[in-house]
Design a protein that fits this description.
By secondary structure, the protein is of the alpha+beta class. It has one domain. It has helices at about 1-15, 25-30, 50, 55-60, 65, 90-95, and strands at about 35-45, 70-75, 85-90, 100-105, 115-120, 120-125. A hairpin with a 5-residue loop joins strand 2 and strand 3 (about 85-90).
Length: about 130
């Protein structure tokens, strides 16, 4: 019985473990790094639910000015093939020349996929 409980704890604990590799890196650094491949996917609808989940980290963005100012970028870590997607502002009228948003593991802009916030174009792990 003890071994089943221990195995369950190990499995549950390992699902929540993620070593974030982006902490303190800038979007520019990631784009220029030979360790990553970055592809712009184009404009996306304002990812409100995703951003609202991280407002305490990002701060408020004016929804009206920013509603058409977001892009998505696919970031692939070359060593592992792991795909991430950055959803961030990309318009000076919205963000004052800095990018704000969220980086998710995978491609779906859901709050549970968030791994880092984007503040002043810098990535900060959650």
């Amino acid at each position: 019985m003890k071994s089943i409980v221990l195995l369950t704890l190990v499995l549950v604990g390992s699902q929540n473990t993620y070593a974030c590799i982006f902490d303190g890196l800038s979007l520019t650094y990631v784009a220029d790094s030979p360790d990553f491949k970055v592809e712009e996917l184009g404009k996306v609808k304002f990812p409100g639910k995703l951003l609202l989940s991280q407002l305490d980290q990002i701060g408020e963005l004016p929804a009206k000015e920013c509603s058409l100012s977001f892009i998505a970028e696919r970031i692939t870590e070359k060593a592992t093939g792991q795909v991430y997607t950055a959803f961030h502002s990309n318009d000076d009228e919205c963000d004052g020349g800095n990018s704000y948003g969220v980086l998710v593991k995978g491609t779906e802009p859901r709050p549970e996929n968030a791994v880092a916030t984007i503040q002043d174009s810098d990535l900060w792990c959650l």
